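Lecture notes, unit on protein representations.

Consider one protein chain, 713 amino acids long.
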Amino acid sequence: MTDQNKPVVLRGTKQRATLGFLLLQANRVVPVSQLLNALWGIDEAPTTARKILQNAVYGIRGFLSPRSASSLPDTYAQTRPALLTQPAGYMMRVAPEHVDVHRFHRQVAQGREQRTQGAPEQAAALLREALALWRGPALADLVEAGIDWPELAALEKTRLNVMEDYFDAQLACGRHYEIMPELETMVQAEPLRERSCGQLMLALYRCGRQADALNAYTRVRAELVENLGLEPARELQDLQQAILTQDLSLSPGRGSPLLEPGGEAETRESVHGSVITTAPATPPRPAPARTPAPRPTDPTRRSVGILSVRTRLAPSMGSGARENLDDLLDGTSLMVREQIERFGGKVTASIGSVSLALFGLDNPAEEDLSRAVLAALAIREMLDIGAEPARLAVNAAVTTGDVLLRYGDPGDAPTVVGTALDECHALLSAVPTGEVWVHEKVCRATAGTIAYRKLEEAPHLWQVTGRRRPTADRSDGQDAGQTWELDVLCGLVRRTWHRSVPHLVTVLGEAGSGKSRLLDDFRRWTAHQPDAVLFLTGRTPSAPDDDSLRAQAEMLSAYCGVRPGEDGTAALVRKVRPLFRSERDAESMVSRLAPLVGGAPESADGVTDDDRLTDTLHAWHTFFQKVARRRPVVLALEDLHWASDRVLEAIEEFANSTRLCRLFVVAVAGPELLLRRPSWAGGRQHATTVTLDHPERVTTEHLVELLRSAASN
């Protein structure tokens, strides 16, 4: 980072990582939870994480502030970057031309456009300038410190794709000698990228090194077969045959036969998930550079996904002034457009509070409808940030159908007409506030990724309930939850069942943070698993001295089928006897557990109440371990922060147990638990803590600030 052409020194890995992550999401609001996950990893942030983040933000704002406002040029002062506090997080406001990544993408787009228009010389120059912006791996110092963000991996893949575009342009110009060293270096570093390997084969052949070109093919084939069990793509095989027969189409001036601009590509992914290679889906027949065909004047019919979004702002948000309300509406429209474009859509019309977008307009694909629905959900989630519905309301509709495209002059957006657009707009008028509805055709095409609820009052229409997550899918087609925390619980319990080792998960959160809802979603998910899961819950009383084992008693009574107030000793005997070979061991277990199901406590001289409590807890623990050896068991203890110290010690023992059994314990508690026991479950191999953040309430002032900020960018 530089300030007026002078490097800025950032101190501390967390401060550099905070700035780097915000710049990767420049001019977008980044939630605090996302920042914490980026800096420490999911569920690995220390208790002081938010304070560390606040200190990092304070430090960044310090060097972003002008040293002397009077000494700064007016143009710089107007575009000076600023780190803004926004509802739910932070946003780095910065002029796009001041960020290398934005300049890189802009020049790449220009270079690819020149290549498409048959101007390889100009394309090569632009792509070379774009690649020159790279001075090593993105955020290399953070990567060395252990940072592994998906955004960085995506940037690196983009750089490799652009390098291959650059090689294509240079080959089209006949400069195979110039790019040979770079090509050889890239193929050596990325041996599974078939496109660059084919480019190297072509360059070697044109340099008169036919044998080396064939050896390059042999090497890439060996890598693909050994690592992926795949043969090279048909296009690469055809190139090998063309080299063997010395096909004249491979001569200089013919360009690169691997992937013509605008051609479709198929993708292969390495088993390690780190290398993506692309190969052409069209036959690799070389073609001379050509000028783009004139755009048709006759209308073209195309099937597209259609998204219609309405955002309503309360007049009170504009403080009674129509001009202020228009500014806020403009900011809302820009935020909607940004989300639509992020999912590959194109806004074709914005009238008042309604935006109409098409998906699959330029490059139709099977996932266009899923992208349209995901864009609608993203818009709803982005604008539904805790504000009262009376101030900001969002509703959306998604349909599909054929439209007619008519192109005018080159560079102009096409005119889009069709009854399908009117049908989507009509559907939008029926969608209630805060909901997303889709047509039945959209539901059928996206049911694998989106969760829906059938609208009984409206035939052929479905309401979107959220994204469908693989770990939380239910066999009845309903969505089991919308939190990543649910995915964590589902993954851990599957791991427990697979390894047959007990596991303790503690769910921490303040009142209203969604602990009960998460537990209900988890219970519903377990109910639809192939194995018959025993799911028992118990709530700790707020006054544990009155009944310190009430939670344990509720679980045992529920398992034995004992109603409140009755003596369940007989029912307990029926459950205990099959678990023990020795009659004496079974009788001992019954006598120790009987008080939990309304039976008479065992009488023994010299035994204190504390000793009896400890013995009962140990018996309860042992009993459910026995049960879990026969079937999967989930024990959920609510309000554990009220439990006595002896109960807490017994629960922690689950994380230390090494007995083979499918026992999963969920302890739900408030933050008071850590105040009582700061080292709760710390350092134990089979223990995990999940923290739920309390949803922040957004004031009208914060909402207005957010929308105005979007309009001013």
